[in-house]
Write a structure and sequence with these properties.
Keywords: Acyltransferase, Iron, Metal-binding, Transferase, tRNA processing. By secondary structure, the protein is of the alpha/beta class. It is built from six helices and ten strands. It folds into two domains: 115 residues, ATPase, nucleotide binding domain (Nucleotidyltransferase, domain 5, 2-Layer Sandwich); 83 residues, ATPase, nucleotide binding domain (Nucleotidyltransferase, domain 5).
Length: 235
């Protein structure tokens, strides 16, 4: 038996999950927390991790590995999640597992659609840009993660071949542009990044010993952080 802690702070949702892993087909969710807040702090995240482990009847020393959503997503959020996960790995001498945020979002919905549908999770990246990727119904990545500016021709190569399901907080801005295509599907459900599916994919990675170098690992930002210069005061 192995115990896995997973964290996801790639958007405004701060989530923590705790799984018991026995095999690739036997992974049980022991508990999860999700906070829909505008601000996430490392202190808040550390408290949630400690609480969920304690309330599940274990202690941090018993943890087998720590998983984190590596991105894409919010620059600040990813920094907090990854730095917290790395700090715990160093303190507890445990391995680090990193999971693509979009892959974990796809994991939430893939069981609900036919095998010939494609899945396109999207995270809002401001203006008309989204972070997105395309996955098959069995979880394979068929179009790599990218930052994409949406227009009327977006995804036309895929949509002309098969049905594509668009979801996530970046999907709504696409609906008015490509929603009229008969193969474009926009479910009326909110699909947000969650540590629960980070943990599910992390269990598979754990079983295959797919670990990161804790010292050198960095979040998958996908694009450079753009700071806004403060306006000069007028006197």
């Amino acid at each position: 038996m192995s115990l896995l802690i997973s964290v996801d702070t790639s958007t405004t949702v701060c989530s923590v999950a705790f799984h018991r892993y026995n095999s690739l087909i036997d992974c049980t969710l022991l508990g999860s927390y999700e906070l829909f807040t505008e601000r996430t702090s490392s202190a808040m995240l550390t408290t949630l991790i400690s609480d969920i482990v304690t309330q599940s009847g274990y202690n941090l020393a018993e943890i087998s590995a720590i998983a984190v959503a590596k991105g894409p997503g919010s620059y600040t959020g990813l920094r907090i999640g990854v730095s917290t996960a790395k700090g715990l790995c160093f303190a507890l001498d445990k391995p680090l597992i990193a999971i693509n945020t979009l892959a974990a979002m796809s994991e939430q919905v893939r069981a609900y659609f036919p095998a010939d549908y494609l899945l396109c999770p999207m995270i809002d990246a401001r203006r008309m840009e989204v972070y997105c990727a395309i996955y098959s119904a069995d979880g394979r990545e068929v179009q790599q993660t990218s930052a994409k500016v949406i227009d009327e021709q977006s995804f036309s190569d895929w949509l002309d071949k098969t049905r594509v399901v668009f979801f996530g907080d970046g999907a709504e801005k696409c609906r008015s542009l490509i929603g009229s295509h008969p193969n474009a599907i926009f479910p009326d459900i909110a699909v947000l990044p969650s540590a629960r599916t980070i943990g599910q994919l992390a269990a598979q990675a754990f079983g295959q010993s797919q670990f990161e170098n804790v010292a050198t690992f960095e979040p998958f930002y996908l694009k450079d952080f753009m700071a806004i210069k403060p306006k000069k005061a007028m006197f």
